[in-house]
Amino acid sequence: MKKVEDIAEKIRTMEIRGAGRIAKAAAGAIRDYAAELDVVSMGEFDTRIRDVSDLLISTRPTAVSLPNAVKLASKYSSGNVEEARQEIIESANRFIEQADRALELIGKIGARRIQDGDVIMTHCNSHAALSIITTAFEEGKDIKVLATESRPRRQGLLTIRHLNDFGIPTSLIVDSAVRYHMKEVDKVVVGADAIAANGALVNKIGTSQLALAAHEARKSFMVAAETYKFSPSTIVGNPIEIEERAAEEVIDPAVLAELPHVQVKNPAFDFTPSEYIDMIVTDVGIIPPAMAYTVIREHLGWELGDL
Ligand code: RUB
Fold first, then answer.
1. Which pTM value belongs to this model?
2. How many whole angstroms from 246 Cα to the centroid of ligand 1?
């Protein structure tokens, strides 16, 4: 249990972050827990796996990759402890392998839409979006990137480091400079924490501003999202919860303590409506946002009754 609690804590504190990494870490944590679980009765096995799944899912509420990964990784049908353990190990390993393969596929598919000379704007730190950008660059396309700082956690600093390692010419901009720079941009490429059944995107706070500015300037807005970032529970009407994070991420608590009339609002994500999205690059191909429902039904394979 200690190891799972450590992973859960790392996800909660964002030492492990980004929808894809969270998903893979959770799948790995369930696998390792199941591998070492010392129980004899199936009833106890079921309870312990359910408790660990709930713990991992509770760490961050928005990224649907997390409950999807937990559900896919903890799949078993056997009523025998040893067999169920093996099933979980195999399901979790399969999920992790497929997630890695999905990143590669998204890179290859998305790079076909990047042209020589393109200036690309990206937001936050998305491995799926970066897979498209770095694949296009490695294919020999002469591209430049504008990367937002992404306050308050400044994940943009991870992005510029990653792009720098590839030798991609990159400019760091503050979040409020997005519209100012949009005229230089050819394409916006961002990742996803969740895609709802109606094709709306949930991603790092500020993403919808990039989408609005791109729409106004008639620039293309691409989302890079593995199929496990689509949200089955939105089909049955469950809303996607937007995580509200601590005030201290935004302002020094000592300063805030001196301002009794001030509160801090710190939502970590926002919604971008589907009409601002030109395409979603997934591991099963490029789709318009209107096809989100089909991806959920065909590729996540969950019937409504399961939800
Ligand atoms: C990260 C973020 C990323 C998506 C997609 O937010 O919004 O754009 O998670 O990332 P946080 P990836 O830093 O709060 O987790 O493509 O790597 O899954």
1. 0.96
2. 18
